[in-house]
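Box 3.1 A note on notation
Throughout this textbook, protein chains are presented in two layers. The first layer is the amino acid sequence; the second is a token string describing backbone geometry. Keep the layers aligned when reading.
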Amino acid sequence: MAKAKKKSKAKKSKAKPAKKKAKKSVKRAAARAPAKAKKSKKVAAKAKKPAPKKAAKKKIVGEGDYAASRKFDKDQASFVKRNKAKIPALGKEAEAALDGSEGANLRAAEQEAINRSVIE
């Protein structure tokens, strides 16, 4: 009978770790379940939001600032449309200013701007 008791103890000792493993796997499964629920909520929340614009995704600044370039072109076209009749008169005013007393200052300012824009 002593042998039988040893076997039952051996079985009991084996059974205990199995229960612990089972408990761990149940705990792990329980821990994972809320994570899956959270993911589904996030997916549902993302589905409700409108898709973001591609331009907002990456902002380019500097010489490659395409948005600023488009705005500048649009503003220039708008100015020309609004002042189409006035543009010849504005040109004559600028020419008169160059020929007048402030011509030297205007040429100096023009030269300074040219010197700044030269790429080395």
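Helices lie at 2-48, 54-57, 66-82, 87-99, 103-117. The chain has two domains: 1-49, 54-117.
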